[in-house]
């Protein structure tokens, strides 16, 4: 869950456990998984857009319950 004040990101909260994610000057300073999904015609939620945030701990707990492991690959971050 994201809170904006005057179009600036001021707060990020894990939707699953309620943990406050560290935000400094609109920059998120710890790991957080952000989902933004628009449901399509073939779903029962056509026209609906869902967004949520998960802290890294909840992301790990939820994805570890998957029947099949998630796909991961390494990438180089350009700074
Ligand atoms: Zn959490």
List keywords for this structure.
79 residues, mainly beta, three-stranded antiparallel β-sheet, two-stranded antiparallel ribbon, 1 helix, globular, binds zinc ion
Write the layout of secondary structure elements.
Elements: E1 2-5, E2 8-13, E3 20-21, E4 23-24, E5 27-28, E6 32-38, E7 49-55, H1 56-64
Antiparallel strand pairs: 1-2, 2-3, 4-5, 6-7
The structure holds zinc ion.
The site of zinc ion (ZN) has 8 residues, from strand 7 and helix 1.
Characterise the protein shown here.
With 79 residues, the protein is mainly β. It has one domain (2-64). Helices cover 11% and strands 38% of the residues. It is built from one helix and seven strands. It has one helix spanning 56-64, and strands at residues 2-5, 8-13, 20-21, 23-24, 27-28, 32-38, 49-55. A three-stranded antiparallel sheet has the order 1-2-3, with no helix packed on it. The protein has a two-stranded antiparallel sheet with strand order 4-5. The two termini are 27 Å apart. The relative contact order is 0.19. It binds zinc ion (ZN). Zinc ion binds at residues 14, 16-17, 19, 54-55, 57-58. It comes from Eubacterium ventriosum. This is Ribosomal-protein-alanine N-acetyltransferase.
Radius of gyration: 15 Å
Mean pLDDT level: 96
Per DSSP E runs of 2 or more residues, the count of β-strands stands at 7
Structural class designation: mainly beta
Rounded to the nearest angstrom, the distance between the terminal CA atoms is 27 Å
The domain tally reads 1
Poorly predicted tracts of residues: none
- Please tell me what the overall shape is: globular
Q: What's the oligomerization state? A: single chain
The sequence of SSEs as H and E is: EEEEEEEH
Protein name: Ribosomal-protein-alanine N-acetyltransferase
